[in-house]
Structure formats: C-alpha cells, structure tokens
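Q: I'm writing up a methods section and want to include an example of the input and output format. Could you take the sequence below and give the corresponding predicted structure tokens, formatted cleanly so I can copy it straight into the document?
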Amino acid sequence: MKFGICTSVENAAAVKSAGWAFVEENVQGLLQGQLADGEWKGMDRVRPSPLPVPAANCLVPGSLKVTGPDASLDALRPYMTNVLRRAREVGMSILVFGSGAARNVPDGWDRAKARRQILDFLAMAAPIAAENGVTLVAEHLNQGECNIINSVAEAMTYVREIDHPNFQCLVDSWHFWLENEPLDTLRDAMPWIRHVHLADTEDRVAPGESGKSDYRPFFGVLKRAGYDGMISVEATGFNDIQGVGPRVLSYVQSQWNEA
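A: Here is the clean output for your methods example:
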C-alpha cells in the first residue's frame, strides 16, 4: 500500500522526509493542457523530484465546460490529448476527473442532456488515456461543490456505461461521509475503485487531525476487497508537511492496520 499527499511537486522533499511514498499533483498547475508545448515546463519541475508523481487531480479547468451550452468536444479533445500525453511523459498513471466547475450543470439545462455530454466527453477521452497508459477515475463530489456525480453510486453509473478499462472510479472519504453514503455502495464499486482520497469530516483536515473521523470501517471495505493501489491525503491546511506529516502518516497506517 502506498500513501501520498496531494501537494506541489516542489514539496516532494518534505513529503519524502515525512515518510510518504508519492506526490499527487494538480493537472492545472503541472500538466497545463491549454499551454502550447513550447511553453510547458512541467517536465522540468518533475525531473528533480525525489519522489514519483504518479497521479494528478483537477482534470478539466472551469473555463472549459463539459456540460451546458458552451461544452465542446472540439475544444476538449486537443486539451485532453495534451494533458494525457504530458501525464505519460512525467510518469503518471492516474488522473482524477472531479472538475466540479467544468461539469456542473447550468441552471435550466436539461440534466439528461448534461449526463449525455459527460458520457460523450468520457467516451472521447478514455481511448486517448489508453494510448498513454493512463487511467481516468471519476471523483464523486458533494452537492456543495457540484450538482452532478455526487456519490460513488452515481459515479458508477458512468463507469458501467462507458465500460472502458481506462475509465474507472475513485472514492473520497470526505465527500463520501459528507453525503452520508452507505458503505454498501463502496463495497459494490470495489472492482472498479482505482484510487482513494482521504480527509477528515471536520473541515476537511488531514486524517486524525480533527479527532472526529474513524477510517477503520471505510478501510475495512478496501482491505477485504484486496485494494492495493494508491491512497492520497487531499486535505486543507496541510502545509507543515515535515512537522505534521509523520503524525498523519502514522495515524493513517494504524487505522489501516486496525481495519
């Protein structure tokens, strides 16, 4: 099992010093699919990293719509082609499709049409991901952040309909608990879960820092299903990585071992 932190690659030395195994970056900050190749400097940032950067989140910028009247596959296709090629070049295997601002259904827009637009986007992107050895994972977002794909169960309807090995599912403990989703939906989704995000229910702080989250039932589902992929902490205020990081890692590991 590999535990990592969602942070800038420039923090990789601190992440490694604190005992973590990898860094999860941000697509918009690192892969920058709207930049021309000559302007992109992501590889220069990753090359000196003492840790691998195998994943990134925030797949599509809010300015590039997936749903609504401004959505355009003609605009999304070259963007995704750039992002996925660059992901391969820097050694990434997982990209997270949360992108609430890009996929949020505009007021008055037909939800069935929005669903179709998301499916069309994924059907376009999954083969490009396959060409680059990358898996896209659907991230369920709570209703305060986005108004579509708000649960693992809903995310799985897209995964099943797309039915492509390079489009799978993520589970995020914070969104999962915030939406009061039952563990049974996670159990049902486990054959397709390829990535995990963690944060406490209280203010989305790092695991254990609020003292109000018990990860053992959540981890128990993952363990019984044989999950052995990456687990990333995606938390707010997790800035003192060298100071707080060892404590958070110890807590996560103990919760995993006790699950």
